[in-house]
Write a structure and sequence with these properties.
about 325 residues, mainly alpha, Hypothetical protein af1432
Length: about 325
């Protein structure tokens, strides 16, 4: 018996019957099973080692180009989601490896400059742009020079359904959807406090009384509520769900649309849309891999993939190289 088979047997013996079991996972392309890792462990490893995952460290979460070292990036957000989701999955005797794979892959397709970048591409790309759909495209099409990662269908479905539309069919995918929201609301509060645009005392007292007066207490409250209330589905207790939604509305009005926080977003949108126009006009200047996409799926699809995959600093550097005059001459 291989180590993988032993792990699959332990899943069957110890996990909830509602879990997504590794030995039932399927892929678009069949492949020889690993002797050591389960299918979902393999998914996790492929995501961690892919190029798009590494680029997350230089992509904005909420605050564009912050000068401090302690603001979240898209990568640190992803790691926080993963930890919260694994904690919930483990407590509910669900598949932690599938949960982790979905969490680590959920934002692979996110644009530079956070949701400002998503809005920029959404305004110019025919049919719009949604980062969760782009995350799936990264996994299926863009990674490994067009071969994709060949992730399991369970992981891919959890990734593409982590934020909008229909819920994932697996409870693990539904855990990630809730964990994403738990993570970003609470760490965005902390980042906003660091930025000086919010204090804990600004949060309405009723919400602090219901959820907690610090980030760690609030996360603990939400995680415990999910563990205790998830019987037929993944859910929070009604007495926690309502203030949690109110806290999200508070963050939307005080941080996510705050003119101080969003003062640079217009520049980011203009920058990306200028790059869009330029490469749509000169697709032969795209990197070779994207030229192949332009030849098979069209120029706009290729330009969208190229821009969506950029980090903040790469986009700025490229813009400067293309459009900002350089110094000339001898002093």
């Amino acid at each position: 018996m291989t180590l993988r088979e032993a792990a699959e047997q332990r899943e069957r013996a110890t996990l909830s019957p509602r879990t997504a079991f590794s030995d039932a996972a399927t892929r678009a392309r069949d492949e020889t099973p690993c002797a050591v890792r389960t299918a979902f462990q393999r998914d996790r490893d492929r995501i961690i080692h892919c190029e798009a995952f590494r680029r997350l460290k230089h992509k904005t979460q909420v605050f564009l180009s912050p000068r401090g070292d302690h603001y979240r990036t898209r990568l640190t957000h992803t790691l926080e989601v993963s930890q919260i989701a694994r904690t919930i999955a483990g407590a509910l005797l669900l598949n932690e490896n599938l949960t982790e794979a979905i969490a680590l892959g959920h934002d692979l397709g996110h644009t530079p400059f956070g949701h400002a970048g998503e809005r920029a591409l959404g305004e110019v790309m025919p049919g719009g742009f949604r980062h969760y759909e782009q995350s799936r495209r990264v996994c299926e099409v863009l990674e490994k020079d067009g071969a994709g990662l060949n992730l399991t269908r369970e992981t891919l479905e959890g990734i593409v359904r982590h934020t909008h539309g229909a819920q994932a069919s697996t409870l693990e995918g539904r855990i990630v959807r809730l964990s994403d929201k738990i993570a970003y609301i609470n760490h965005d509060i902390e980042d906003a406090i660091i930025a000086g645009v919010l204090t804990e005392e600004d949060i309405p007292k009723a919400l602090r009384d219901a959820l907690g007066r610090t980030k760690s207490v609030r996360i603990n409250t939400l995680v415990r509520s999910c563990i205790q209330s998830s019987v037929a589905d993944i859910a929070l207790a009604p007495g926690i769900q309502a203030p949690f939604e109110e806290l999200h509305a508070f963050m939307f009005s005080h941080v996510y649309t705050n003119p101080v926080c969003k003062s640079e977003e217009g520049k980011a949108v203009a920058l990306l849309q200028r790059l869009w126009t330029y490469f749509c006009e000169y697709p032969d200047l795209l990197p070779s891999g994207y030229i192949r996409i332009a030849e098979t799926e069209g120029t706009q699809r290729a330009v969208c993939d190229y821009i969506a995959g950029m980090t903040d600093r790469y986009a700025v550097t490229l813009f400067n190289d293309l459009f900002v005059p350089k110094d000339w001459g001898v002093f």
